[in-house]
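Supplementary Note 3. Input sequence used for the single-chain structure prediction.
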Amino acid sequence: MSQLGYRSDIDGLRAIAVLAVVLFHTFPAWVKGGFIGVDIFFVISGYLIAKNTFYELDNNIFSLIKFYARRIRRITPALLLVLIFCLVLGWFALFSEEYKPLGRYVAAASVFISNIALLKDAGYFDASAYSKPLLHLWSLGIEEQFYLVWPLLIWFTYIRRRFLGILISVLAISFLLNIALITINTEATFYLPITRIWEIISGSLIAWIIHNGRLKILTNYSEQLISPVAVKPARKLILNFVSILGLSLLLFGIYKFDSGLPYPGLFAVFPVLGTTFIIVSSEDAWVNRVILSNKLLCWFGLISYPLYLWHWPILSFAWILEGEFPNRTLRFSLLLLSIFLSWLTYFYLEKKVRSYRLRVSIPVLVGALLIVGLSGCFVYFTDGASFRDSISSFKSQSNSEKIIFEKIENISCKSILGISYDEGIYCEVKTTNPKVLIIGDSHARALNAASFRGGVNLDSIMIGVPSCLPLVGFKLISKGVENNLCNELPKAINDLLIKYKSIDTIIVATRGPHYFTGKGYGLEGQNSFSIVPSNGSLERQQDMFRDGYINFLNYIGSRNKKIIFLIQVPEIGEDPDYCLRKRPLQITFNDCSQSLEKVLQRQGSYREIIKEIQLAYPSLRIYDPNAIFCDANKCYGKRDDELLYWDNNHINTKASLLLINDMIKKGIIEINKQ
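The predicted structure, written as discrete structure tokens, is reproduced below.
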């Protein structure tokens, strides 16, 4: 054992951290809270780095140059390998619009600011996360940004005996900012170092307590309260209790948390406290000695860093090349591949590099990192290396419509009708005498596209809120936050019906299973939507979906209007543009078709709920759009090489025209014949 003392249980703790993260990414339905593994890593890192630094300061051997050199030699070799792998595979597998952001992420990773680069994009738990092969490097960015300042802070304060006060102050400020900002900007709180470093400092604080004998003082004081005969058993009992409590906190978070929580926030206290409890328990505790020091866990602990680096790019590229979340068998195979590559990386790269002298290895590693970073810049500034022969030029059919659609505005309602709504509410109209009112979420706006853009002469007005159901008596929650605009939608609809007597038909168009199952479709993965009752009662999500709609229909039904419920169009679960072109390197080619059986399976409980709604409100008319998109066996996302969708679930103007004309043909709605 070295002077600093190797602790095998820390490697076991590393194993729990990395396996939690890896299993969360690979099998998200099984390990829903595995993302807390990163928090465990933060605490371990803070503890180990501080422990080594305190030892060197006490023995007058601390050196800033050697500190940074060790970090470079520890972090860089495996990181370089993974970044090069992503650039090379991306060259052959990614379209230019995908390769360009990858170049940006590679450049950011080379200077350890991945968290800052990702902050401008989608959140860590968003559906598009799997399309970012370097998403996981956000945590490395936070660590290295902290350790850029750490040695200077500790060197200046430790020798002046002001260290503990400053450490606790920074921890408190960071923690309080984390609590304050989590409800204001979840993504910023997740990615910014200022709201995360309290976790790393928690590990450093434990290192200070142990290093300065404060834990021993506390133990001795406790022992004085116990008879001398019972001291040793009592000490063991205390250590075992603390370590079991720590492990329980970690397991609770891993299996009970999910991506819908406003994280980190207060919830991050669970993994941070759990990890600190295990560390302070020492190797004498039963959990540490028997479970965490297990040889298999320690082996995973040794390869934890390369395993963390490898698993996500491999899974992400498989998702990109497959066009959807890989099936369970493929994911398991990719997990085994990640473990194998991590073993090779640790034993044949990392250990070899660490054996070289600092003066040789550091300049080489820094130079290599600079070259890789510049390569990422080159990819980014050449628009994803668009000159590649393997990438044919392609004009997106969906992009222009997507740009128009994503502008949330109600200018037409304000200019034509003098009605103004809060920002975030859709309102579209082209007449002062509307006859058809289309309501719902963004799917209502997609349905109205042909009418609003002049494809059909329908006197319609559309009002809706993105990611919203027009429920009465229930509220919609996403990522722990209530959608207040959604709560206002039923009243806004009723006000329109009162003001415009010309409206004789109402069409309700929203997504369905997406809101009450907690699952997206295809590339979307899990989501964080949940329905909650306004009165606080407990009901099943499906029942609240049904009852909320029934309440809404009764709320507006007194106006004696014809109400049509549009069953959700089939979701295609993939980027429609990729149905029109093939990748140079691809696992399967997706033609935007899927089996009708799969669509009906997705919509099974949803369709049963709609039947129950119709039983409760018999005058409701149901329109099923499957006849437009499906035949007896399959449903299609394109016709005659023209797309019917602009993303994985929203129809485009062409499909809107098909649906509206079909409803006109069937006498469900009427057009303006003037």
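The mean pLDDT is 87. Residues 64-93 form the longest helix (30 residues).
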